[in-house]
Write a structure and sequence with these properties.
By secondary structure, chain A is of the alpha/beta class. Chain A contains seven helices and 19 strands. Chain B contains 18 helices and 22 strands. Chain B has helices at residues 2-12, 17-30, 35-43, 54-62, 67-77, 80-87, 100-109, 115-124, 128-139, 148-159, 163-170, 178-184, 286-290, 300-305, 328-338, 358-366, 452-464, 521-525, and strands spanning 203-204, 206-207, 218-223, 227-234, 237-242, 263-276, 308-318, 321-322, 347-349, 352-353, 375-380, 388-389, 394-398, 402-413, 422-430, 440-446, 466-470, 473-476, 481-486, 488-491, 499-502, 505-510. The chains are: A alpha/beta, B alpha+beta.
Chain lengths: 343, 530
């Protein structure tokens, strides 16, 4: 009998499950990967086999064309879909169950079970309601491997309704301008659009070209985004008084010159800090995140109530400290390749 | 306080200067007295509450949040006031914000003891934006991208008066500036400052860079390496102001009863020595002057060993006559004539540097390093004395900097605009032969001289090459070479290397250069001039 939990190991490039010889969210190409969600720092291309929710696989297919044939007409990549709540048996007696994480479309926590021991890898998650994906489910386990992107007590994401009201008020105050919202192309953009619809905004929303396919994919998966138009199909004057959504990188780009005097907004949890907003030349900061804020992180650790908490990427120092202060066992994992700057 | 907090937030997120002016002007027009006066003072750094310091806020927070969580948060945000405004525990009561005047009154009434109980009460009455505005106001220095000049320009714009006139009265008045609002907003007589020893804003110079000027139109002077001061006497009182308009009279008591007539004079404050302009009575190096700066009391020994004097550049007002509209040549003639009425012990005249032509002047400038002079000033002969920097009138032509190759050793996160970026760099030189195991000794610290793009690359370098962390400081693997530019280097007991650079800045980042090729401490020591 081997030592407890010796079958699961954090390595610099991901979490390795040795009996099954596969990895969770590896940051380099591997033979077999379990992927929590479609963001590039968790889901990279080039794996021999990818096990993920159908939505995540669709996102990866869109981004990497993983299902494309090679020169010999073979499809080198094997995609294994797992529905929420479904368990898949891996080699070496390891079971993997995919549980909603509430982060973006298709995002899952992965529950790994082996020899009676239960480990959850959350990937990224949040506890707020999101019209574009099912909510996070608290699941008991022995080791809880949590993210910590917003792992500082100063991060409190306000109710999204407040942020939508801020955006719509500013739009109404400047009928001759447009509001350009920088939002991460996968997840954030669609959530902002869906929330705008929920807040009663019925007008067409304009998209940067890089957003189009992902929005269509969301729609195909049953998320209603209302009327969407491509910026490139319209004249400057058409967009006066409208909301335009683009990736954060396009906010201060020459691309935005085609817009009617845009008010620069950005939807991100980092906007809570004034200087962060200033660094990005943001005039209208919208504190909207698809990650758990400090309150959600600490609440989740309490509710899951695992024997041990492993903290992955983000501000692990502070969350580790919190665990220490609350007599919860915890360690920080030094994983490489995770990037949190755009959320 | 809500309107003020909303203004501060709007200003934080506004890039356009015109939009900032519009926002402030609108606030000043819409807000009653004396709230708007206090707000104007806050925006122009005119408020100071000695009981409330950054450390006060830190101490308050440490009773409310774990100190480790506090410092991690503070380190991330890069601003104590903002961190505290975000972390302050939300009170049970709904906010009941005080007015700006009430806030100022309460802050003024606090002392170092009562602040511990009184400031929390005030914070509890505000929402996060209000807390941010309050803490910024209370600790002074808003750092929200609004300069004092911008605030005054907005005031002028709000009430359609001239900003030069506002500048002129400004320094004779105190917050909340009732006389200023009475004049500008309510059409009463302008404030009377004639008999007050007030600061007049300095005329400043642009860097010369590639410009070539005709010496028929421009006069050249040395740019002395001391501190630029304005000496003002009105009535029986003399005051000394620094470049920013701070009253530094108490630091230089020997200069307070030597100006025999009412005047406003512009010059360089120096201490006696042999270094600068030795042949004409001489001043010591800046290093010697530095010993006298920032002191509240001055010992007799110090007055004897390092007596201060003023090397005069210009005369703004003399015995009630305003010379500022006159051309420089005329003011210079008046200044020269004044010299015989001024005691030689405490005044001399900054001499004109004669040159045949611009090239000759360039040669003279090249040779100026030995004199510990900062460089040359070029002044257009017909220039009036105007507050601030005007294109084409005055130029500063600093001598070329000294350069040394150093190795990045430690990096610290910046604050303000650069919060979260590792932007403050400590670098070192080799204490011997690096190939024979010599160590690096820190020789200086710099946080300027690079572009925003370079900053991002440097930040990435620091994060990827960290070998050790000490709180907010990271030690790097010492793999990156900086070409560091500096104006001069001096002996210093404060540093392990025994050296201190003046104005060090990153001149070039030598991504290509192996660290063992960086300079040795001896090479730097050889450049010491005093």
């Amino acid at each position: 009998m081997s030592a407890p939990f010796s079958w699961i190991k954090p390595e610099p490039h991901g979490i390795h499950i040795s009996p099954a010889d596969c990895w969770v969210d590896p940051s380099k190409a591997v033979g077999k990967a379990l992927v929590t969600h479609g963001h590039a720092d968790h889901a990279r291309g080039g794996h021999g086999e990818t096990i993920a929710t159908p939505e995540t696989l669709a996102i990866m297919e869109l981004r990497y064309r993983t299902g494309a044939e090679d020169d010999a007409g073979e499809i080198p990549h094997k995609a294994v879909p797992v529905e929420y709540g479904e368990t898949i048996r891996l080699k070496g007696g390891v079971d993997a169950t995919y549980i909603p994480a509430g982060h973006v479309l298709g995002s899952a926590q992965i529950l790994l079970e082996h020899a009676g021991e239960r480990v959850i890898v959350t990937g990224d998650y949040k506890r707020r309601e999101d019209p574009t994906c099912p909510a996070f489910e608290v699941t008991p386990c022995d080791i809880f491997i949590t993210e910590a992107t917003f792992g500082l007590p100063l991060f409190t994401h306000p109710p999204i309704e407040d942020e939508m009201a801020k955006l719509l008020d500013r739009l109404a105050a400047h009928p001759d301008r447009c509001v350009l919202v920088g939002a991460y192309a996968l997840g954030k953009a669609q959530r902002v659009i869906a929330e705008l619809r929920r807040a009663g905004h019925r007008h067409p929303i304009y998209l940067h070209g890089a957003m189009e396919k992902m929005c269509r994919l969301y729609e195909e998966h049953g998320v209603d985004l209302g009327e969407l138009r491509l910026v490139s199909d319209y004249a400057k004057d058409d967009m006066r008084g409208a909301i335009v959504v683009c990736p954060p990188s396009a906010l201060n780009d020459r691309w935005s010159r085609r817009l009617p005097d845009p008010i620069t907004a950005m939807a991100s949890g980092w906007m809570r800090v004034r200087q962060r907003a200033r660094q990005r030349n943001v005039e209208l900061p919208l504190v909207i995140s698809d990650h758990a804020d400090w309150g959600e992180l600490t609440r989740t650790i309490k509710e899951v109530d695992a024997q041990e908490n492993w903290i992955t990427h983000g501000r692990e120092d502070a969350l580790l400290r919190w665990c220490q202060l609350h007599q919860r066992r915890a360690r920080a994992l030094a994983l490489v390749g995770y990037d949190d700057e755009d959320d | 306080m809500e309107e003020f907090a909303a203004l501060i937030d709007a200003l934080v997120y506004t890039r356009s200067r015109n939009e900032k002016l519009r926002l402030i002007a609108e606030y000043l027009r819409a807000t009653p007295d004396p709230d708007r006066g206090w707000a104007l003072a806050a925006l122009s750094d005119g408020l100071d509450f000695p009981a409330v310091k950054s450390s006060t806020i830190r101490n308050l927070m440490k009773d409310r949040i774990d100190p480790v969580l506090w410092s991690l948060s503070r380190d991330f945000v890069g601003d104590t006031a903002e961190t505290a405004s975000l972390l302050w525990p939300a009170p049970d009561e709904p906010p009941s914000p005080p007015s700006v005047s009430e806030t100022v009154e309460l802050l003024e009434a606090m002392n170092r003891k009562t602040v511990v109980s009184e400031l929390p009460k005030l914070l509890d009455r505000l929402d996060p934006s209000g807390r941010y505005a309050l803490l910024k106001l209370a600790t002074g220095g808003m750092r929200i991208g609004v300069s004092s000049r911008l605030a005054k320009t907005a005031f002028a714009q709000a009430f359609d008066v001239s900003v030069d006139e506002v500048e002129e009265y400004w320094h004779g008045l105190a917050p909340p500036y009732p006389e200023l609002f009475a004049w500008a907003a309510h059409g009463e007589d302008p404030p009377d400052i004639e008999n007050l020893p007030t600061f007049r804003p300095f005329m400043l110079a642009h860097p010369l860079e590639e410009t070539v000027v005709d010496l028929a139109d421009y006069a050249a002077e040395w740019k002395w390496d001391g501190i630029r001061v304005q000496l003002v006497r009105a009535g029986d009182e003399t005051r000394i102001y620094s470049r920013s308009g701070d009253d530094i009279s108490a630091t230089f008591p020997e200069l307070l009863d030597v100006l025999p007539f009412p005047a406003v004079l512009d010059g360089e404050l120096l201490v006696r020595g042999t270094h600068q302009g030795g042949e004409e009575g001489g001043a010591a190096s800046f290093n010697a002057l530095q010993q006298r700066l920032g002191r509240k009391t001055v010992s007799k020994k110090m007055l004897k060993e390092a007596p201060a004097f003023v090397r005069l550049y210009d005369a703004l007002l003399v015995e009630g006559e305003d010379l500022r509209p006159s051309p420089w040549t005329e003011r210079r003639a008046r200044l020269e004539a004044l010299m015989e009425r001024l005691p030689y012990s405490h005044f001399d005249l900054s001499r004109i540097v004669e040159a045949r032509d611009f090239d000759h002047l360039a040669q003279i400038r090249e040779g100026s390093r030995d004199d510990s002079i900062e460089g040359l000033m070029l002044k257009r002969k017909d220039s009036p004395y105007i507050a601030g920097r005007r294109v084409g009138y005055w130029y500063k032509w600093k001598r070329d900097p000294l350069l040394v190759d150093c190795v990045l050793m430690y990096a610290q996160r910046g604050s303000g605009k650069r919060s979260s970026f590792y932007s403050d760099y400590t670098f070192g030189c080799w204490d011997g032969d690096p190939d024979r195991g010599a160590d690096l000794l820190p020789v200086g610290k710099a946080y300027s001289g690079f572009t925003d793009e370079e900053l991002k690359k440097l930040d990435r370098h620091v994060r990827r090459n960290t070998v050790n962390r000490f709180g907010p400081v990271r030690e790097t693997d010492k793999s990156l070479v900086f070409e560091v530019a500096f104006d001069s280097v001096h002996e210093s007991k404060r540093h392990k290397s025994g050296l201190a650079m003046r104005f060090p800045r990153i001149h070039r980042i030598r991504w290509d250069k192996p660290p063992h090729e960086a300079d040795r401490v001896e090479a730097l020591r050889a450049l010491v001039r005093d």
